[in-house]
Amino acid sequence: MQATTSHFEQFLTDGTNDVHYNLRLADGQIISIKAAACAATVNVYLPHEIATPDGDSWGLEDPWEAWLTAGDAPVDGRYFYEVQVADVRKLIEEHGGEHPDQSKPITNRFDQAVLEGTGTGRRPMLRIRLADGEVIAIKADAGDDAVDVYLPDSIDAPSGDAWELEERERQLTRLDGKPLPGRLFYEVPVNHVRALIWKRGGEHADQTNFS
Prior knowledge:
- Helices cover 18% and strands 31% of the residues.
- The chain is α+β, with helices and mostly antiparallel strands.
- The strands form three sheets. Strands 1, 2, 3, 4, 5 and 6 form a six-stranded antiparallel beta sheet that branches. A five-stranded antiparallel beta sheet has the order 7-8-9-13-10.
- The longest helix is centred in the middle third of the chain and has 10 residues, at 85-94.
- Mean pLDDT is 84; it is low at 68-72.
């Protein structure tokens, strides 16, 4: 089955009116494209989770750019200028093509916790059910730019320095009281956690009993 690149092809045909359009790939990663109509090259923003592709086409890189992939939240990554269309198409296909759902992933519960904090009560870590059914938990101080994150063993921690402060001794429980084996990561930048949530499709619509 051929990987679909229909949204990317539309960007190439119509152009993006000098703005960047986000493109969710089949594996959940989000890249950003800026294209002129019928141009042979495009500008591409890749998150750090996507390794820099091989080839001269990706040589014009700005590693300091932090591009907006949703709202006002920058995600660390790299910006590439004048990438050959064929090489971008190849990258999309290597990630399984485009995701069938191109709507913005929901992070309302996470964003509210970052804004207001999660408190210091009996259960200071806020559980969040993700769109794929997995459950993570976060502890946040109001307005801080980093949070503590508990990932179950079923979710691999992203690579990178943001996830280095890890502890395996602490273990949360599910709502039914059974253990939820996993790892606790301290002081992870908010944008990196949001990117992980986006990659898994955002938050689940049903957060019942997760108050």
